[in-house]
Design a protein that fits this description.
Layout lengths: L2 H34 L5 H8 L3 H7 L3 H26 L5 H29 L16 H19 L10 H15 L6 H16 L4
Length: 208
């Protein structure tokens, strides 16, 4: 028997248990912050996670550290989803790429609606994202950055008018925020998505 392989098993098991506990804490924190806002109590989060408060503080020094870890985790997942949609539609018609990006945003919002709504409300107003480190950028800033990348495709393809193109990313993200806050995670999500896409293209599309 290989003694090294036997000794590695408890190590891998402990790692898996730590990862599972960390994910359970983040899930519980997401539920608590969604229900109670950014000031949710650590005791509430520990109770939702099924762990002692002391265990929670052993992993996160305070609520702000937990909030930051959860924010980063959910934001990274959202950005990975959006980037995958943009990469998958590279070279495709602008409308197809736009639909893919909006659908990815819709799916993530539907899965994390409560926390994302709380996060957007708690974050500062939109600023110039390039002026700050990536880890400090807000959800809206990251969305606008990716929308700007997509808008450049639309202008290059001739699908969008170049005049006022600098405003299109902000307008698109603002429209999506307003619609998602209303009902985009419900049964009417696909229909509302179509309406946003159609409205944006009619307003920003190149006139014949």
């Amino acid at each position: 028997m290989n003694r090294d392989s036997v000794s590695e098993k408890p190590v891998r098991l402990r790692e898996r248990l730590r990862e599972a506990t960390a994910e359970a804490i983040l899930d519980a924190a997401e539920q608590a912050f969604a229900a109670e806002g950014a000031r949710a109590r650590m005791e509430t989060i520990a109770g939702r996670a099924g762990i002692a408060v002391g265990t929670l503080y052993n992993r996160f020094t305070d609520r702000e550290a937990l909030w930051d870890a959860l924010r980063r985790s959910r934001l990274d997942a959202l950005l990975a989803r959006l980037d995958a949609a943009l990469d998958a539609t590279r070279g495709r018609p602008f409308e197809e790429a736009l639909r893919a990006m909006l659908a990815a945003l819709q799916a993530h919002w539907a899965a994390h609606r409560g926390f994302l709504a709380t996060l957007v409300q708690a974050e500062p107003a939109l600023a110039h994202a390039a002026a700050r480190p990536a880890r400090e950028r807000t959800v809206v800033e990251e969305l606008v950055t990716r929308a700007a990348r997509l808008v450049r495709r639309g202008v290059t393809q001739g699908a969008l008018r170049p005049d006022d193109a600098d405003l299109y990313p902000v307008l698109l993200v603002g429209m999506m925020r307003a619609v998602m806050a209303r009902d985009l995670s419900g049964d009417g999500g696909d229909a509302l998505l179509d309406r946003v896409l159609t409205f944006f293209l009619r307003g920003a599309g190149r006139r014949p």
